[in-house]
Every structure is written in C-alpha cells, then in structure tokens.
Amino acid sequence: MPRAERKLARMSAPTEFKNVTAVAKANVYFDGKVVSHSILFPDGSRKTLGLIYPGKFHFGTDKAECMEIIAGVCTVKLDGQSATKDYAVGTAFDVPAKSGFDIEVKNGICEYVCTFIG
Q1: Phi then psi for 83, rounded to 5 degrees?
Q2: CA–CA separation, 23 vs 25, rounded Å?
Q3: Is this model's pTM higher than 0.85 or not?
Q4: What spatial distance separates the first Cα and last Cα of the chain, rounded to whole Å?
C-alpha cells in the first residue's frame, strides 16, 4: 500500500503509552476546535494526541508526520493534490515535511495520534 495512506491492523493503533512524559499544557488551534497534548518518549521522540471538532482546518508541517485516526472520521487533502480521501478508525495518512494538509470533520469528534517522523 502506498506510504501516503495505510490501513492499520485492528489493534496496531495504541490505546495507551507507557513510560512517557505528558505535557499538561494543551496545544489549542482554531479557537479550541482542534486540541492536542504532547507526549515525550525516553528516546527523545514526540507524539501528539488530539481531538478535532467539526470544521475544516489547514495545518502546515515542519517535520514529516503520520496521522493515525483512532476515533471518528475525517476528510483529508494533502497539499499539492486535488483529491480528498476519507479516513476512519484504523487508518492513517502520512504528510511530507515542509508541506501541509486540509482536514475536515463533518460530524462528531475525530481523535488522532500524530507521530513526528525524523
């Protein structure tokens, strides 16, 4: 399957992370419609765990990242592409470094785990 989109094994998206430092201060975007918290791993890597409420938002990336959808549904358009794709629980998409994406949640709340690559 192309690296840009993946179907995760049913249990591959973790439900908890052990031996991490949780950053209490939230990352709040778009008037609170996107909220995440960072978790820091002993090896220096970082992930964010977040919620996206209904709306359409654009994010830019510095580092490459993988967005794993752990609840809800969203529609994504990567920068430089014209097509959109829906992602639901158990799917993920990769975003190249120095790029970005539009993400839309039409109903409910979309929950994600963002892994920063590299």
Answers
A1: -85, 150
A2: 6
A3: yes
A4: 21
